[in-house]
Structures are given as C-alpha cells and as structure tokens.
Amino acid sequence: VQLQASGGGLVQPGGSLRLSCAASGSIFSITNMAWYRQAPGKQRELVAAITSDGTTNYADSVKGRFTISRDDAKNTVYLQMNSLKPGDTAVYYCNADVHVSEYGFVYADAFWGQGTKVTVSS
C-alpha cells in the first residue's frame, strides 16, 4: 500500500491550499485517515483526522480554518486549508489505517505518505 500526497506549495498569508492524499495497493478498507505536520525543529503533530463514519477532529490551532474530508471511492483524503498563517509552514504528511488484503488474508497496518511542503510567506 502506498500513500501519495500532493498539493503543497508557496502561498501568501491569508491564502488557501488544498492537499490530497491517495492510497493505492491491496486495500480491503480504510478506517481512520489523518494529516500531520512537522515544522523545522519541531515534533510531528496531528492536524486533523477523520474516521470511516466521517467524524472529524482538529488541532485547536487549525479549527475553523482547515477542513478534512475523504472520498472512499477514490481512497483519498483531502485537507482544505484557508486563512493560512506563517505558523502553518511545515511538511504535511498523510496517514491512513488500512486493512490490507494479501494472499487471502486481511490484516491491519498504518501507512504514511511521503510529505508535501507548505510554505506560508509574503
């Protein structure tokens, strides 16, 4: 199973970006999906998460500005980021809890995307 993240870039303060992360491979189902970020010199932190029934959870620092969503038909999770601030600058990573189907077996595992860089600067 692979997660491919995209959508990062350079944006001015107050601007918007939409991140995407598509999962591919021997996927039986996906439960939780999430976005994390890691700024230079800081630990990786949870930004937003979404369960298989659509329940969402956000870090206090992004509530009201970011929206996480998912398209299960495409095995894709999105992060709509509005009103971006310089403090949002980081590498953003997607994460998914996947039930993998291989060789007649189904097992659970967690996977990470490669990261996409978001820079908020004037």
Protein architecture, described:
0% of the residues lie in helices and 61% in strands. It contains no helices and 11 strands. The radius of gyration is 15 Å and the shape is elongated. The mean pLDDT is 96.
Beta content: over 45%
Task: Give the rounded overall mean pLDDT.
Answer: 96
Low-confidence stretches at least 5 residues in length (pLDDT < 50)?
none
> In total, how many beta strands?
11
Q: Residue share in helices? A: under 10%
Bulk shape: elongated
Structural class: mainly beta
**How many strands, what sense, and barrel or not for the largest sheet?**
7 strands, mixed
Which structural traits does this protein have?
122 residues, mainly beta, 7-stranded mixed β-sheet, 11 strands, 0% helix, elongated
In short:
Helices cover 0% and strands 61% of the residues. By secondary structure, it is mainly beta. A hairpin with a 5-residue loop joins strand 5 and strand 6.
Write the layout of secondary structure elements.
Layout lengths: L1 E5 L2 E3 L5 E8 L2 E12 L6 E6 L5 E3 L7 E6 L4 E6 L8 E13 L2 E8 L3 E5 L2
